[in-house]
Design goal:
Helix content of chain A: over 70%
CATH class of the largest domain in chain B: Alpha Beta
Number of strands of chain A: 2
Shape of chain A: globular
CATH class of chain A: Mainly Alpha
Helix content of chain B: 25-40%
Order of helices and strands of chain B: EHEHEHEHEEHEHEHEHEEHEEH
Strand content of chain A: under 5%
CATH architecture of chain A: Orthogonal Bundle
Number of domains of chain B: 2
Oligomer: heterodimer
CATH topology of chain A: ABC transporter involved in vitamin B12 uptake, BtuC
CATH superfamily of the largest domain in chain B: Response regulator
Number of helices of chain A: 13
Shape of chain B: globular
Largest sheet of chain B: 7 strands, parallel
Number of domains of chain A: 1
Order of helices and strands of chain A: HHHHEHEHHHHHHHH
Radius of gyration of chain A: 20 Å
Distance between the termini of chain B: 42 Å
Largest sheet of chain A: 2 strands, antiparallel
Chain lengths: 309, 330
């Protein structure tokens, strides 16, 4: 166990945790905005898969990483348009249509990968960018301030999302249509428009999450996310629908995974205990959800389609 | 001539579209005969991952393509859910395929139910070392420890820190055989430590990449891994300039300057044997193994990676020793 508490290993663990947390954080923040408006999107994973594929394909074809990020964002936006029309204007059941989006994204990304790429081919990964001065801080700088730009963006979006939700008129509208859409409607707030925009924001961030995932790895494979989008949805509950809580959940999930991997590499967790250790992140999340469920309440109108009486 | 059909992704897209349409608001049966167009042998593969995964599933698809027969090939891949795989296996049998290859250890329980209902169909199941007493099931497995041992011994010659890292999926099947063989070969070759991480997933590329990063933080300077999720770990190795050893399929294309060698499965060696038996009326009941001796396992070296003097010769001698039984991988 002593080997784990050496500075180099701790720094590597922190860096790994932040890399793992980045896609979760981006997707969860977006889903937080959507859920605060009353819309649950179980299709996050499918959106991420499609965005990840198109981002990967863009790098493969053009070599341009930033164009790939933009493409990921736009794919998320397009999927948001689709989901918004289905759930807000056609009043479809959110849970089922979200699963439809997931299956659609899973299948289409797989199909496109086979038709357009075939065998996995490595592409450039997002380079790490040193933050001047901060990256020079011994050990801490290496762990926190020598990361890629999408990681910085993800963490920057935490206060931005918090400010959006709590300090702007649009944020107030989002929360009001998520808690009491009838009252918001009677006060002249367009429930449909507010939810639609919230969905577009949420899906765009899921698109960014897909781009972050694939561009950190530098390769695409069918079902690349392995259910990451569903964990992101769970982290919104974990974070009690608050950006800072969501960030805490994403980091905790990343840290537990990174620590388990380090302990396996060091032999602290023997091979015979590997399967049990793999459950640690999920068990921790479930326990936290049980605790959270006792003290917070979801947006009152979450998953409920709006109908004007 | 070989024709190939794939179902997995298209079916998922259609399901997704149907789910969307359903919440908001054809028939391609193959003929139920035993032979394909022009008398071709009708073979179907049900595989758990993508058929071009540069690993387990691809090894079987490539092998069927390598058979010197007229084959009409159908593939359902990405069946990571066992129930989906079982439905595909049954569907192919009902559609009159001559041979259905259930390419995954986890499909064994499904075969116990399905195979007896189709006594004229030959099922091939792997990786597995026995046929579960089923008369129309052939089992196949690789002696993955053999190539693992060779790769491990070369890795030991390359490491400067003496510490070698392994990224594995779940401690089962040919993964554990390869890893145990690799570990034995590396330690016998002089490595001081071989650290093994089982990520718990055959498909989680991100976790495999982070497992490789964890190894690098612990003085590892040579890496290997098995199963389809290692594409992420190879990327980490490539960025760090660390040599990589592959298995199941040739992984050189993932890191052309850093993949040293790959143990490649050539299932066609045993597929031919099983098909010959089928021709003679034996539809199953026997188990087969691919190994270095029968040519079913081949160590494919990457010529672009320059091995130190003598290492390649030593590796060739080791392959010879395993083949003739003078070197033990245990």
């Amino acid at each position: 166990m002593g080997e784990f508490f050496t500075l180099s290993v701790l720094v590597a663990t922190a860096a790994s945790a932040i890399r793992l947390a980045t896609p979760y954080l981006l997707a969860s923040l977006g889903e937080t905005v959507g859920q605060r408006s009353g819309v649950l999107n179980l299709g996050v994973d499918g959106v991420m898969l499609l965005s990840a594929f198109f981002s990967y394909w863009t790098v493969l074809e053009t070599g341009n990483l930033w164009l790939a990020v933009l493409v990921g964002l736009v794919v998320g936006l397009v999927m948001g348009l689709l989901y918004g029309v289905i759930t807000v204007f056609l009043n479809a059941t959110q849970g089922i249509s979200g699963i439809g989006i997931f299956i659609f994204g899973l299948g289409l990304s797989d199909l496109l990968f086979r038709q357009l790429v075939g065998t996995p081919k490595p592409v450039r990964r997002l380079p790490n960018v040193d933050i001047p001065l901060l990256s020079d801080i011994p050990h801490l700088g290496e762990a926190l301030f020598q990361r890629n730009l999408l990681t910085y963006l993800a963490f920057l979006l935490v206060p931005v999302t918090a400010l959006l939700l709590t300090r702007t008129t649009f944020g107030l509208n989002i929360r009001s249509v998520g808690d009491n859409p009838q009252a918001a409607d009677s006060l002249g707030v367009s429930v449909e428009r507010t939810r639609f925009v919230a969905i577009l924001i949420g899906n765009s961030m899921a698109g960014l999450a897909g781009a972050a995932l694939v561009l950190q790895l530098g390769i695409f494979q069918p079902n690349l996310t392995q259910g990451l989008g569903f964990i992101a949805v769970a982290l919104v509950y974990f974070g009690a629908w608050r950006p800072i809580g969501v960030m805490g959940g994403a980091l905790l999930y990343g840290f537990v995974n990174a620590t388990v991997l380090q302990w396996k590499a060091l032999g602290i967790i023997p091979v015979s205990g590997s399967d049990l250790a793999n459950m640690a992140p999920a068990v921790l999340t479930i326990l936290a959800l049980i605790v959270v469920a006792r003290r917070v309440h979801a947006p009152s109108a979450l998953t409920k389609p709006f109908t004007r009486h | 001539m070989k024709r190939q059909w794939r179902l997995g992704p298209a079916v998922l897209v259609i399901l997704g579209a149907l789910a969307l349409v359903g919440t908001a608001c054809g028939d391609d049966d193959a003929p139920a005969s035993g032979s394909g167009e022009g008398g071709a042998l009708r073979v179907a593969i049900v595989a758990p991952s993508a058929s071009d995964d540069l690993a387990f599933s691809q090894s079987m698809v490539d092998s069927v393509h390598a058979i010197e027969r007229d084959v009409e090939l159908s593939v359902t891949d990405g069946t990571f859910i066992i129930e989906d795989a079982a439905a595909a296996i049954r569907g192919y049998a009902e559609d009159g395929n001559d041979v259905v290859i259930a390419h995954g250890t986890q499909f064994g329980a499904s075969l116990i139910e399905i195979a007896p209902a189709f006594p004229d169909v030959t099922f091939m199941w792997g990786t597995a070392s026995d046929t579960q007493g089923l008369a129309n099931v052939f089992a196949y497995s690789p002696a993955a420890d053999e190539g693992g041992y060779v790769n491990g011994s070369i890795a030991a010659a390359l490491t400067k820190t003496g510490v070698i890292g392994v990224v594995g999926p779940i401690e089962a099947g040919d993964a554990v055989a390869y890893i145990n063989g690799f570990k034995a070969g590396a330690l016998a070759g002089g490595a001081s430590e071989v650290n093994v991480t089982y990520t718990g997933s055959f498909g989680d590329v991100a976790l495999a990449a982070e497992a490789a990063e964890a190894h690098l933080a612990n003085d590892v300077d040579v890496l290997t891994g098995t199963a389809q999720m290692v594409v992420g770990a190879v990327g980490v190795a490539a960025d760090a300039g660390v040599p990589w050893f592959g298995t199941q399929a040739n992984q050189t294309s993932l890191a052309p300057s850093l993949v040293v060698a790959s143990q490649v499965y050539h299932w066609e060696v045993v597929l031919e044997e099983m098909l010959t038996l089928r021709d003679s009326g034996v539809l199953g009941g026997q188990a087969f193994e691919v190994n270095l001796a029968n040519g079913g396992l081949v160590i494919e070296f990457n010529d672009a990676y320059e091995l130190p003097a003598g290492v390649r010769d030593a590796a060739d001698a080791m392959i010879e020793g395993i083949t003739n039984g003078t070197v033990s991988t245990g």
